[in-house]
Amino acid sequence: MKNRYNRYRRVCVILLCTLLINVNSCKEDGDPAAQLPALTTVAIAQISTTTATSGGNITDDGRAEVTTRGVCWSANANPTVSDFKTSDGNGTGIFSSSLTGLTENTIYHVRAYATNKIGTAYGDDVTFTTNNFTVPTLLPTTPASSIGQTSALSGGIISSDGGSAVTSRGVCWATSHNPTTIDDKTTDGSGTGSFTSTMTGLTGNTTYYVRAYATNSIGTAYGDETPFTTIENGIPGDVSDVDGNTYNSVAIGSQIWMTENLKTTKYNDGTDIAFITDSLGWLNDQLGAYTWFHNDIDYKNVYGALYNWYAVNTTKLCPNGWHAPTEDEWITLENYLIANGYNYDGSTNGDWTSNNKIAKALADVATWDTSGDLGSPGNTDFPSKRNSSGFTARAAGAKDFYGSFGFFLSNGLWFPYAGVNGEWWSSSEVVPGATTAWWHEISTYSTGLLRSHNEKYYGLSVRCVKN
Are 338 and 388 in the same domain? Predict the structure, then answer.
């Protein structure tokens, strides 16, 4: 009996061990129904010349954990993980992938992949073509023009956007060769075609190098480099007339203006200008005449002469290389000052027609009456703005057709002395053949440079601008 019991005991032990081994084996092998994951490839997006984005959506892990996932790509169909690939984490669900290092204008095949212990599964094969975009193409940079002491004009022409829209364009400049957009630059819109750029904040008597630029999604391209040199400012006595009078000048924006009223008694061909003092003779003259304030030559050096418009119209009044400003040139001056903060309050409000506040920036310090409105030349507020443009406008008064000197206000008051206003002719008629011509005025009763028109026989000051 004892032997049968021991044999039975040994059999039970053997059966129990066999059972334990089988249980452990099942745990190690996992679910005998596990299979490859199920997934799809995400459509290609954000395609450039060398990059794109894709990804996948793993909808089923195949009853086994997804340990690696991503996309693979090749120029051949049905790429595998032995080709180029990304690694984008693990698990199921949607994931994104960034494809890099691509070649432009090339067809690629892309498949999402997912790996579990059974193996690697792939999504559908999706194809795309990389872009063949380039940076924009520019024609040669426009040579600098309207060169002043602190500003100049340039620009460029974009002949092709390179296949990607031009988002920014302009010119860049520096005092060294090959300037880039990290140097001083303008921003002049977008798109292809021609554009004009205004460079400001320059330094007088300095050589600059300028290049046009254009930027698209690929990068920034530049036009050819072109040099220019700004003018030197305000050289004392740098202009002289045929009478031997000398004048200072100043660069304001792209223009160069005399800083004194003209005082010549001769045209630039050496012929005399008629000197007329009697009222009837002045009223009837249509050939050109001048006088001094109150017909007194003692006013010459401070205020210059007063000329009728017929003298201006000869085109021989200013020194050679200079001319009486047209209406457009006056407007250019005024708009530049307004736009660049020369209003007495530092604003950029108003325009050349009205509501500007640039009188103080134009007026000299010595010749103006101290009465007047806020911001006007004579007012003591905002002293730092006084003659900040360097124009040095003199309060020389005017001569009317009655032969009276001074300043006639719109309210009927007459001031028979200088110091209250200054008026300067434009060479432009109101309309061709009209009896009136445009003039521009500063007075102690206005904050701005005003514009109006007078009969041509009025006697007004003249400022010359360089050709």
Answer: yes
Q: What are the residues facing 212 on neighbouring strands?
A: 171
Kindly tell me the burial class for residue 304, based on how many C-beta atoms sit within 10 Å of its own C-beta (0-12, 13-18, 19 or more). buried
Q: Residue 158 pairs with which residues in a beta bridge? A: 138, 193
Cβ-based neighbours of 466, under 8 Å, separated by 6 or more: 249, 255, 256, 257, 321, 322
Rounded to whole angstroms, how far apart are CA atoms 272 and 317? 10
419 & 275 share domain: yes
Range(s) of the domain holding residue 119 = 38-129
Q: Rounded to the nearest 5°, which phi and psi values hold at 334? A: -65, -45
Residue 83: the pLDDT is: 97
- Other beta carbons less than 10 A from residue 215's beta carbon: 19
pLDDT at 352: 67
Helix (H) or strand (E) holding 439: strand 436-443
Tokens of 293: 């304030």
Q: Answer whether 239's CB lies under 8 Å from 246's CB.
A: yes
Give the Cα separation of 295 and 305 in Å (integer).
9
Averaged over successive runs of 10 residues, the pLDDT of the chain (467 residues) comes to 52 45 42 89 92 96 96 97 97 96 93 97 96 91 81 91 94 96 95 91 88 94 92 68 90 87 96 93 92 90 94 96 95 89 81 80 85 74 81 88 60 58 93 91 86 90 94
Q: How many CA atoms lie within 13 A of 254 on its CB side?
A: 16
**Looking at residue 203, what is its pLDDT?**
84
Integer Cα distance of 209 and 78 in angstroms: 54
- Residue 323, beta-bridge partner list: 465
Is the domain of 199 the same as that of 90?
no
Count of CA atoms in the C-beta half-sphere (13 A) of 372: 24
9: in domain: no
Strand partners, 135: none
Distance separating alpha carbons of residues 455 and 94, to the nearest angstrom: 82
The alpha carbons of the chain give a radius of gyration, in whole angstroms, of: 42
Give the whole-angstrom CA distance, residue 166 versus residue 77.
35
Query: What is the pLDDT at residue 29?
Result: 45
